[in-house]
Write a structure and sequence with these properties.
mainly alpha
């Protein structure tokens, strides 16, 4: 009986170690190759969108949206900034 309890504890401990190790491995895996260019691409596209809007005095990129173009530019750039939280 005592041996059964000990073996059960060993099995439970080993399974916890395996789970912890696999979750640590998943957290430390590097990003795919495309992640960094896409992240910086979003940030740059958002910045360019805002600059084009200001330089063209609201004529470009989408004139019908008016000042909403600023929000769109910040939104695109914000996606890139959110991606930085997942960058390893």
């Amino acid at each position: 009986m005592a041996r059964d309890k000990a073996s059960t504890k060993d099995v439970a401990r080993r399974s916890r170690e395996i789970e912890r190790t696999s979750s640590e491995d998943a957290a430390n895996t590097p990003n795919p190759v495309w992640f960094k260019p896409v992240m910086f691409g979003f940030m740059l596209v958002g910045l360019v969108w805002i600059i084009v809007f200001y330089v063209s005095q609201g004529v470009f990129p989408i004139p019908d949206l008016g000042s909403w173009n600023i929000l769109i530019g910040f939104g695109i750039a914000f996606i890139g900034f959110i991606m930085t939280t997942r960058w390893r």
